[in-house]
Amino acid sequence: MSREDIMRRLELLRVEHRDLDSAIAALVTAGGGDQMQIARLKKRKLRLRDEIAILEDALVPDIIA
């Protein structure tokens, strides 16, 4: 995967992460959100965060000290 591909993928994941954050907040604020649905969205958000971290690490070159 090229650096450009990683950067594009990171941007898409970050947008999805922000969208999930907004969706979760809206469900919680509305008070009518299904707790299972909120839990699923939060799990998805955590998986996205982990994938973002992996891709960010891939962008940093290994430095041998």
UniProtKB/TrEMBL annotation:
Pfam families: DUF465. It comes from the Bacteria. This is DUF465 domain-containing protein. It comes from Sphingomonas bisphenolicum.
